[in-house]
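Recall the central idea of this unit: under ordinary conditions, the amino acid sequence of a chain determines the structure it adopts. In this exercise we apply that idea directly, starting from the sequence alone.
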Amino acid sequence: MDFNHYENYGFDRISAFNLATGFKDRSYHAHWHPYGEIVLVGPGKNNIFRVNQHMYTLAEGDFLLIWPMEVHEIIDADREKSLIIQFSNAFINSLFDLQRIMHFYRNLHVLCVHAHQQLVDELRAITERMKESYLSAASNRELRCCMLLMEFMLTLDQHREEFASEMKNGDPYSYTDTAMHRMIMVTDYIKNNLTADDLSQSAMARLAGVNKDYFSRIFHSITGMNYSKWLNTIRLEKATELLTDPGMSLTEVAMHSGFQSISSFNRVFREDKGMSPREYRMLFVPSDAK
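Accordingly, the structure predicted from this sequence is:
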């Protein structure tokens, strides 16, 4: 198959799914964007990446997972034969199960072929099908690729027991359909009302119609994190989205994201990103700048 027609594809029209390879330069500066990336690492002894504050030296066939809004950088790697898949944050947020998977694996960035050979082999096969679908002339290629992306995430989630000790989360399947629907109602309410007067765990438990202790257990089981951590994560996701607007001050970003003060916003942001909101804003790369 001839890949020349898609090499150096510049991601100039970010939709639900994009794919590229063939970049000659071995490095790319630190940046972030509102979409996630899956990198299938190419050949060579030196494949060095940074995600947030962590450096990773990877081997051919490893996967690098970069979740939406994460600062990342290619220090030195074969970008010509690596495969880069990009997916929109809106696509992930469209399904609760995809949100749950992203939250559960948020701190997982590397799938090593030597440590998880069966999983990586399965994911590589799905990725090859993505590439074939993306390069086809079919009018429904984006839909096919999104279906394969969901299969990628589902396959990853089916191997969750391999990562239990790393993730240190509860069992994301130890809940009933009723409990899941109640959590969907709560999480949707929070995302649409980040500036509400009372988003405490007690208030959200009342909204879900359960006691606080049960709410705490089931919320952690479904999202993979405690309520306070999850709420700050959602506020930071909103903040990083608003930081793309140069006309909005940092104080306005903090207030619209639900933080009570600029000091708490700066503290939480730095703890999560390793830099201030102002520094983070300076790293923003629009979708047409790659």
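The chain has two domains: 17-167, 177-282.
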